[in-house]
Amino acid sequence: MTMAEIAVVIEAKAVLPNDTATIQGVYCSDMLSDVLGNAEEDYLWITVQNHRNIVAVAETRDLPVILIAAGRPVLDDTQEQARNLGVAIYSTPLTVYEAAGRLYEAGLGRSQS
Amino acid sequence: MRPRIDPAAYTPFHEALYDLRVRDAMTENPITLSTEATMRKAQSVMRENRISGIPIVENGKPVGIVSIQDVIEALVWNDICAPVRKWMSCQVSTVLDNLPLIQAVNDFQKHGYGRLPVVNEQGDLVGILTSGDVTQAVMFRLNEEAKKAEQREARRVLSALHEGQVTGADIVQVQVTAMDLDSAGTFANQVKKALKKRGVDPDFVRRAAIAAYEAEVNIILHSMGGLIEAMVDDNQITIIAQDTGPGIPNVPEAMKEGYSTANEVVRSLGFGAGMGLPNMHRCSDEFSIDAPASGTTVRMTIRYGKTAVADKPANPAELQGVPS
After folding, report:
1. What residues of chain A lie within 8 A of the CB of B269, using their CB?
2. What ipTM is given for this predicted complex?
């Protein structure tokens, strides 16, 4: 799924857009090392963390997009860092659970059958 | 006594035996009995403390030694209530506490003793030494030496690189300040760039970046600051993270997934998941950590040369074990 399609499904707003990013799956976590250890490349990362350190984590793990859930504000220096490192940021009013649920329903990241 | 080892055959093992003193290896404040204690008492003390011999002392000076064999003898002769002075070995060989350990080893070999009472210059009993104590002390010393050698080698390689003695390698170096979370990822980002520039396979770039990031964050969160360096060539990357303390009291514990000493504030930011060291270990082909109070050194190598794929265990779970 492209990020543009995903944004529609989860009512997300592009803070720093990358609509053409092709997303292979989703990882939900608020622990940075957990994301580093367990997310896979080209996954969408859904989190409620909104401080600037999430950007370096996404960049390190090759996650093209961070989705900040639960309507949490995207802090200014987080945006600045994301711009510097080329990581896209979207935000959604949905909770992590709801956003992940809708994307799962939409077939994202489920094994092809 | 003259050592009976051919100097040409000296090994680090022998060096340790000459370098260490008897007092470095002995058990201090050994359990003793007076000459008037009964053999039954000697037997129960041995059983309770799981020891096989007890020095017998008068006025602080060793006058004999009672072993399990002596207790058995006393039992055979139905004399277990007799005082130890009756059954003890009176020919007490002792060893001075300030002699090299090799002296005691020679005594063990020559006389077949299982244990030697250790005395100071005044002849007072200050400890007891078994061959097990010797082995343990030497092993400990060798382990320390091995760690030092590893660090020396790491420093040598790095300084050779700095001085331009090795060409064709890139150096990435970042000074890390304690609690400076805003800078987290600076080093990892530079590592990533250096590897990409060489056209390294993205999987290896990612592994190196994760290892670099975790090492960097550990210095920020858990140390008083330090230096993190990487050298990158066409075959591998070696990352060396050195901080100035306070070390890690229990490394095996720290290597366990989920174990963290991070405070609440830091955890609320998503750090302190207890996965930093396990992630580093999993991402590396070689991983070593040394964490005395004077500072922790983590050394990681990731190989992406032609042999890289074959060297990496197929199942990352195999790497979950704790290095000794």
Report:
1. 32, 49, 51, 53
2. 0.86
